[in-house]
Amino acid sequence: MIRSLVELLDENEPVLALAIHNGHEMHPALQATCGISEADRLREEDPHTEQFTTPFKNRIIVYTSRFTVDLNRRREQAVYQNPEDCWGLPVRTEPLSEELLAELHADYDSWYGLLHYTVERLLQKHPFLLVLDLHSYNHRRQGPDAPPDPQEANPDIILGRNNMPQSFYPRVDKLRLLLDGKQVYGHTLDCRCDVKFPGGQLSRRLHKDFEGRLLSLSIEFKKIFMDEWSGDLIIEFQTALSQLFNQAVQNWRKELIT
Predict the structure, then answer these.
(1) CATH numeric code, 4-256
(2) Which of 41, 53, 94, 255 lies in disulfide reach of 17, CB 3.0 to 4.6 Å?
């Protein structure tokens, strides 16, 4: 079972925030055959993205690790079985049984049923919905004491658009302009579209299933608000960044939704 928290605290607000890679919990049978350390697994997850959903009244947070089921992949690719499935990491020490694989695929289907129910419930009150698919990514892959990866290819915030109709691209660029160049915690934000992470399966599926009724945007925060090697959060930085992002989204949605 994929463990999630669903909160709909104000259904009059046409925004749903998701943190689907936030979790670290792993199916016991998968943990027993996991070929990577818990620290390496944590580094490839998106810890603390739950906190970015906090300012939003409607949200879904996933506490199960992407190394159990990756909800941002197509169903047939959602369970990592080989190194090529997850950045060359030796994810399995032995193959998964057909029974376990079927159970995990059923969990995937059930979770998407929950997501679709939640979206439909909000769309009963709104002609158009914003879905924020919130993620984070590493930028110090050479080691904890090595220089960060070059800024040119690693913006502070990436807005992924390749999984939405191109007619939405100008709308997303309006959010980019509300974030790019802003000051937060002594840092000038660099926000760009479609660099490195152009968006995953979740937004692609929502745009297909709810065509014209929502805009689902993949957002990647570079892990400048935390130590990606230890997992430690810089609370003041994350809080300030989250507040700035929320304010930008609120201003943005006023232009998009009447």
Answers:
(1) 3.40.630.40
(2) 53
Residue pLDDT, tens place only, 76-107? 999 999 999 998 999 999 999 999 999 999 99
Tell how strand 4-8 and strand 58-62 pair up: antiparallel
Report the SS3 class of residue 131: strand
Tell me the sheet residues that pair with 129: 214
Confidence (pTM): 0.96
Helix residue spans in the chain (DSSP H): 28-32, 38-44, 49-53, 98-123, 169-179, 201-209, 235-256
What whole-number distance in Å separates Cα of residue 164 and Cα of residue 214?
A: 10
d(CA 41, CA 30): 12
Helices (H), 124-200: 169-179
Give pLDDT tens digits for 50-82: 999 999 999 999 999 999 999 999 999 999 999
User: Do the beta carbons of residue 130 and residue 257 sit within 8 Å?
Assistant: yes
CA distances (Å), 25 to each of 72, 97, 110, 228, in order? Answer: 17, 20, 18, 18
Q: Residue 135 is which amino acid? A: H
